[in-house]
Recover the amino acids of this structure.
């Protein structure tokens, strides 16, 4: 099946066709580093991670760029509140962000550009927008004139009549139009800023992202991702700036994930339901939190509540339990009929998984396919106490690929099952060694036979030759 993606630009599913054969370039909006990321942020980052993982599974070379906004009004306020420098605030919360990514098994982006490292690129972009007539300077501030960009509103659907002063837009007498947005902001003396043709200042938020995206991915790239809250004004403004500069589409596909709510309410500090990833991980394992965040389709809202998390925990345990039961089975050389039937069921579930993911990354249906594998394994284990080595390997590899490599749910097997598996491997290995030694004895190669026995004895094995058979056991430890 061909991969189809719901494109916010046009509000319809479209067949995915990358600009370059075998390669996909993605920009996903990263954090503004003034605080710890919350579970709503995590949903957006995990969605981007699953998209990336599935595209890599399909054979694409994926370049994922995700920025770090390390200069912003919120960062400045946090620095003032804490007495720390803006740079210190940025470093503290950037480090915390990467810790959270690692905890949730989110692959680190290919490139993590920081806004403060691209000031010269941003100044150049702003200068070109002024030269092209899309921007104007007033008292050290530079604004984008949205009336000059005919396609403004094409992503969000917000037309000019909806952009009048009032809703969401602060009235500023310096602007030609209330909806014009800042490309460059004049700074007061002593504030963090940079020299520019318009005086001492710093970049606006929107120009940071479009500049860094085009620097690393080109004037037009494949996919732009982010939360639904970024459609307007952030992504709308990114499009306006970039396309005014180049005359080309910024991104061909726009993917936006829906809200995350807490007990039915939008998460906010004022309501006291603001949950950071670090706090969530004190209550639930990374696997459970990640499973919960992909259990609903990315374009559907998801509610963080006790019932949902209990269900997520139970589902993760079901998945791991089935895999543990598979691993605990003894192995035999050849596959039997039931083994082939199990493989067939697993391959059919894999096909359904791929079909679901090809349909706009439908993780709920993909998870349903995984539970078909869980069911097949459990039925098999209930009826059998051993499995063909190749069948076991194939089922395990499919399971690991779908659960861990694509969905990113890191597999953890309880120690007792691993110990059981190690014991089985040890027994099989000793049988092979003793068969070789027995063959040496049949050939009257006594020296080699004795060397094998002596070397095994040195590493803790007792070998006992009897008239009927050769036995082995581990030396008892003495204290």
């Amino acid at each position: 099946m061909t991969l189809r993606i719901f494109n916010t630009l046009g509000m319809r599913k479209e067949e995915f066709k990358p600009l370059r054969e075998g390669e996909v370039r993605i920009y996903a909006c990263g954090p503004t580093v003034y605080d710890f990321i919350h579970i709503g942020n995590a949903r957006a980052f995990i969605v981007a991670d699953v998209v990336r993982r599935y595209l890599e599974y399909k054979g694409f070379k994926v370049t994922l760029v995700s920025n770090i906004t390390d200069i912003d009004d919120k960062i400045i306020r946090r620095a003032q509140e804490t007495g720390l420098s803006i740079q210190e605030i940025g470093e503290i919360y950037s480090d915390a962000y990467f810790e959270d990514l690692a905890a949730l098994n989110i692959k680190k982006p290919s490139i993590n550009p920081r806004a403060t490292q691209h000031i010269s690129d941003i100044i150049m972009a702003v200068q070109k927008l002024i030269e092209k007539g899309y921007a104007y300077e007033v008292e050290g501030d530079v604004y984008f004139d949205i009336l000059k960009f005919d396609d403004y509103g094409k992503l969000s659907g917000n037309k000019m009549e909806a952009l009048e002063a009032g809703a969401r837009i602060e009235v500023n007498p310096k602007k030609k139009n209330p909806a014009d947005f800042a490309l460059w902001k004049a700074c007061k003396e002593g504030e963090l800023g940079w020299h520019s043709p318009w005086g001492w200042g710093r970049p606006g938020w929107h120009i940071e992202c479009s500049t860094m995206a085009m620097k690393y991915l080109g004037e037009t790239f494949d996919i732009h991702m982010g939360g639904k809250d970024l459609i307007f004004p952030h992504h709308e403004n990114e499009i306006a700036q970039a396309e005014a500069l180049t005359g080309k589409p910024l991104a061909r596909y726009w993917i936006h994930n829906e809200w995350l709510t807490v007990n039915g309410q939008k998460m906010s500090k004022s309501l006291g339901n603001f949950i950071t990833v670090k706090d969530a991980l004190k209550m639930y394992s990374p696997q459970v939190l990640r499973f919960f965040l992909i259990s609903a389709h990315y374009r559907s809202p998801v509610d963080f509540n006790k019932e949902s998390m209990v269900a997520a925990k139970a589902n993760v345990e079901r998945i791991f339990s089935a895999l543990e039961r598979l691993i605990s089975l003894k192995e035999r050389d050849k596959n039997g009929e039931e083994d082939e039937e199990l493989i067939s069921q697993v391959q059919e579930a894999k096909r359904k998984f791929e079909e679901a993911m090809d349909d706009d990354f439908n993780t709920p249906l993909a998870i349903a396919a995984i539970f078909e594998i869980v069911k097949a394994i459990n039925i098999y284990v209930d009826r059998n106490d051993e499995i063909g080595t190749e069948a076991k390997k194939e089922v395990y590899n499919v399971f690991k690929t779908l659960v861990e490599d694509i969905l990113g749910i890191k597999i953890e097997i309880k120690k007792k099952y691993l110990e059981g598996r190690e014991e089985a491997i040890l027994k099989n290995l000793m049988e092979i060694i003793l068969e070789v030694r027995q063959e040496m004895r049949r050939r009257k190669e006594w020296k080699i036979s004795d060397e094998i026995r002596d070397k095994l004895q040195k590493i803790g094995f007792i070998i006992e030759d009897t008239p009927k058979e050769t036995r082995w056991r581990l030396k008892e430890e003495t204290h």
In short: The CA atoms of residues 287 and 409 lie 5 Å apart. Residues 415-442 form the longest helix (28 residues).
